[in-house]
Structures are given as structure tokens and as C-alpha cells.
Amino acid sequence: MTTHEIAVNLPPTLDPVYSNRIQIAFKEDEVTFIFLHEIPGTNQARAKAIVSISPRHAKNLHDALGNSLRDYENKFGKIEGPVEKPPVENVTMRGYS
Q1: Which of 1, 14, 24, 88 has the fewest CB atoms within 10 Å of its CB?
Q2: Going by C-beta distance under 8 Å and a sequence separation of 6 or more, which residues neighbour residue 25?
Q3: What pLDDT, on the 0 to 100 scale, is given for residue 91?
Q4: What is the distance between the alpha carbons of residues 8 and 13, in angstroms, rounded to a whole number?
Q5: What's the rounded Cα separation, in Å, for the pair 18 and 1?
């Protein structure tokens, strides 16, 4: 894969978004990420951003995130994962926190 630099324009009015939960949905030609903020002490979450990308871009994101987390753990130490729950069958949307 060839890499090249691009100029990224971050508008001054663009606000950062905090998300502590994500839902991922997919169909044949796109993967959609719904970033949520779960309100502590309640059973409610507020959608903060929705991003849809192609499956190929999702695969690239997967690889880039894996590399970044490996670098993070090398610098700051191991990240402990969540306690695993039993898998739910026939689901194409899952939430992660």
C-alpha cells in the first residue's frame, strides 16, 4: 500500500464528541458506527455521531486501530478488556463500551 500525505482541514467550529458506547450495524455495502454517550446511573444513551463507511474502509480502520492500540500498550501498558458475555446468535448489531 502506498502512503501519501494529505492536508486535513479541521473547521474551528467542529466540536469534539465524547462516546462511551458504540453500536455497529452493517449490510453488504456499508458498515455504520453509531457513537453513543451512555448517561451514568440510567438506562439511557444519547446518539452523538453516526458514521458509515465501506467494508474495505472498515477493514483498514480495524488494522489501523489494532496498530494504534499495540503502540499505546507498548507505551502505557496493557489495556484490560471487558468481562466477556455469552455471544448472541443471528445479530448484526452489537453494542460495545
Answers
A1: 1
A2: 31, 32, 34, 92, 93
A3: 45
A4: 15
A5: 32
Residues 23-68: pLDDT tens digits? 999 999 999 999 999 988 888 999 999 999 999 999 999 999 999 9
Coil vs helix vs strand at 20:
coil
Task: Report the range out of 4-13, 63-72, 75-84 with the highest average pLDDT.
Answer: 63-72
d(CA 32, CA 49): 10
DSSP conformation class of 16: P
CA dihedral 63, 21, 30, 27 (to 10 degrees): 120
- Annotated domain spans of the chain: 21-78
User: Is 21 within 8 Å of 39 (Cβ atoms)?
Assistant: no
With cell 452493517, the residue in question is 26
pLDDT at residue number 97: 53
